[in-house]
């Protein structure tokens, strides 16, 4: 039997790498909670599933097959923090796989009777479903839910769709998937430029972290001095011998970049309006920059954007942020597929589809 | 390739008939935005689809067939203006056809991060779906969304479910469909009486407009003098030689009517409480009037009603406003079917169903 | 033809047993409105359906069969009173059976245009669906909806999911189903202890009432003197010769109990803070009590709980309140199945599944 620590506080304080086994079964990830769970091997597997899903759903027959894969499953999307983007992406990922969905989007409804603990509330809602996809403002709450579920007689897997400021593993996943797609599967050896508010941007931090999975990647961090990448990530990169430069001169790193990852200023984390004092305009990508970058360079953004990327840039084929967003749906569907171990059925269908195409033409 | 004007303002100012081609593909309507798109030919086609859908869904087998037609599609219902009636009607139309749905019903959630343009927001949401059904308070916003979508590499069709005060084409469609059903397909030659606040009622204006598709129809406009039909519609009728009379004497036109279209006073458009100054009671349909009208006359109302129609009238078979409302679901399902070109599959199924019935009995 | 009284007020004042026939068809319950409709025969039938549904949905094939049973149906969940628990349970019951769902959860959206009567609103929404599941704060409103629907040309069945303080029949149903499951179908002869705020708890009142369906059941009511069971229920028990005791000494009745039904204090019904004056702690079930009760005794709670049951009790196999909650989904699915007469198809599938298992092994 799996050993689950009885003491939540103790587990929570444990270093992430040490507690991953509490959230896996039979050597596979069971709950998706941390970016640290995304090893290269798992990433490759998820990308293959996502690619296959895209492939088979190009025909109606394939799409109907995909939506039969998990047609016996019910998921709860528990999103008590506003997030339409991630919410819709997960919802449609469920729809792709035929999963039926229930939504909780408002704490006022869910805590209807005062005095029920939030643990009881979540356990209640889990009674009716086979999967919980959860976004919560409190750091650790999603992890605690997974821990609690694993202690019950009827555990259901939990996917973290954003938990406080700390973890949002499927966002990191979709970013790496987008790099993977853009480089035909070859992230090794690429130069990636990250631009903007690197200090407070969760996405650039996770993406930097995940680069440890690839060989000979080099990074450039472009930011105003007030919002430089934090020392913990820089230390991590040094430890893993991942070369990086820091600069405030965006133009200087553009010509060599294989990917430029733009971010907006995270002023929702301001404590005293510090964002307003910073001139962010040197960290904008403008139409004129399209002439400077490589023909193969891709421009990414986790969205929503403000003025960091001129809308005129959208029409350039190298602007892939809309595709990046759409990738989120596919790779989340892949994650859910993986958790329910349906991936092999997708591949089988793919093979039979391809042979059908071969024979029919 | 289709030519899409680059300048939105210019396109928006263009006369409707001149811009329809920007919203069609291969000679078919692609986005449903304007009542002006509803030609007689298209109306007849949509009515046939709606009739066939009703027919096949009478059996479970037929209903299951209907809900397999678009089972590979996902729709977004973007309704940021309250409208439960139209919303539910579209939602269930999607369900009929097996389309999976996502809902955006609250701008506060969707514009969660301030600073994102509404164009970006809509484009984001469209990433995950194959169809956008949109209701928006800003005139032209739905049209602009369709225009924007058509400029992207991954356009999805857009259906207008009510855009400002100007356009609500599927409401007009369901009204004409109800006439069509009531008259066994023969709208030509009928006398239609429209009653109430004709000045500010969007439905009576659109319905009058669509009468140009039929032969020898005559209209009577019954209203208080404050809320008479606007000159633009009267001019349009004259231009197309559609005879009409205007009167405040409801009783005088009742005996000849083939259809009586009742409307409520549109006091939400009052600027200084002008509705309260008008005696609306002569424009009520009462139980006693049932004796005056033709045995074949139908009583319609776009609903919701207040006191314009006594509830005692509901039980008369000529009171068809509840059926009219239900028609909305069917004809919207037909519209979606048409857009995705699945109509032929419905007809096939109908034929095979009919032959099955013939052989089985 | 069924006779439906024309006068709502008159019908509403009629004693429940006298009006049941207005809500049945062909000798079967058509609308589920009152606990009084739950005869022993009907209960047994619903329990069999629920058991069969659980059995067949253990395999993907069975689950897919279950969700094909009512795949041609559309339901509206009209929950204008907050209730996530009951809502999710019904929603997932619909999903289990393949029913497509629409939700109305907010009166402000539904009564968007002032002046529409709530009867018209409900009739509107019913236009698009085949089933209404309704929770409403106004006593009698759900019943009135069913009465109105039955008078239209297109009636749809109505299920009461909680109507004012008076009726919540599916809660009573799930409680009896839980007893049935816990006692292997033998509720006859059992000793059931109900604990807490018995005066104002709707669940204990309904459960007591339904005990009339079983033989030789005896009850113990444990409560503070301020919240004793009301005389109407006590009178009912005397009339049906169901023995009961009343006590404030919880410990004294624990050792003999076959089931202990815990409830929380219903302080939302306080008129002047009377709950705060009562010492509720003698009516808590604590970990130490696990030693006192029978090895076969079950501990139930309608949830949500506060402090009435220590969380340490949750891990004891006799604590079945989480299973009780999950039972709600199954037995509600059974109720919907029954109303649409699909129960026989479930049983057939069950039989063929069982024979498949027999032959395959």
Task: Describe this protein's structure.
The structure is a homotrimer of 361-residue chains. Chain A is α/β, with parallel strands linked by helices and 361 residues long. Chain A has 2 domains: 8-168 and 328-360, Rossmann fold (3-Layer(aba) Sandwich); 170-324, Rossmann fold (3-Layer(aba) Sandwich). Helices cover 41% and strands 13% of the residues of chain A. The first copy, chain A, has 14 helices and 11 strands. Chain A has helices at residues 8-13, 16-19, 40-56, 60-69, 84-96, 107-110, 118-126, 141-151, 169-182, 202-210, 231-239, 250-253, 321-339, 343-360; strands at 24-25, 28-29, 74-79, 100-104, 131-136, 158-163, 191-195, 218-222, 244-247, 259-262, 298-300. In chain A, the strands form 3 sheets. Chain A has a 5-stranded parallel β-sheet with strand order 9-8-7-10-11, with helices on one face. A 4-stranded parallel β-sheet of chain A has the order 4-3-5-6, with helices on both faces. A two-stranded antiparallel ribbon of chain A has the order 1-2. In chain A, helix 8 links the parallel strand 5 (131-136) and strand 6 (158-163). In chain A, helix 3 (40-56) packs across helix 13 and helix 4 runs antiparallel to helix 14 (343-360). The first copy, chain A, starts with 7 loop residues before the first helix and ends with a helix. The model of chain A has no long low-confidence stretch (mean pLDDT 91). Chains in contact: A-B, A-C, B-C. Chain A binds chain B through residues 57, 60, 63-64, 67, 82-85, 88-89, 91-92, 95-96, 105, 264, 268, 303-306, 311, 322, 325-326, 329, and chain B through 68, 71-72, 74, 76, 100, 102, 104, 108-110, 112-113, 115-117, 120-121, 123-125, 127-129, 152, 154.
